[in-house]
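Reviewers of the previous submission asked for a worked example of the structure-prediction workflow described in the proposal, so we include one complete record here. The input consisted solely of the amino acid sequence. No template or homolog information was supplied to the procedure at any stage.
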Amino acid sequence: MPEDYEPATLEHPARNVPKPVMPAEATKETEAGAQAFLNYRADAQWYAMQTGDTTLVRDVTAAECSKCTAQFDDIEALYQHGGWAIGGWEKVTILPGGFTKRMDGGYNLPVDIMSSGSKTVPSSSKSVTQSPFSGTDLIDIYVDYREGHWTHVTASPRGAL
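From that input alone, the workflow returned the following structure tokens.
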């Protein structure tokens, strides 16, 4: 983190939030490329939570992911109404042996997710809190690789995709 970054508190939103940059590795159709992409997307989602700017995470997420779109809309609305979020950091790790291309060309990746949790500081009386979690919630993330880039399509409970 840059020295001038200030995390959000109950008194103020985050300040001087570093904007994530897509690493070159994340453009390759390899397991390391998929992991680099998931790392970037997690950083872009955290950036959205910290700033209200969902552009980066929307750019790498399929529009068909209705839960994703609803989450991004909620983040934007929170900031548009004078609120902000605290936390929201996640680390996503592809489980060993989980990088397998499906017949449809996509990848259904079993992942371990660690989350710091989050809390919203709304300008109204409604507040949303997500408790931290790690490993006990088994998730698969479905991603697609086309024309030199990855796209997050959806996430579901393990085995549901």
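Helices lie at 31-51, 55-59, 66-80. We consider this example representative of the routine output the project will generate in years two and three.
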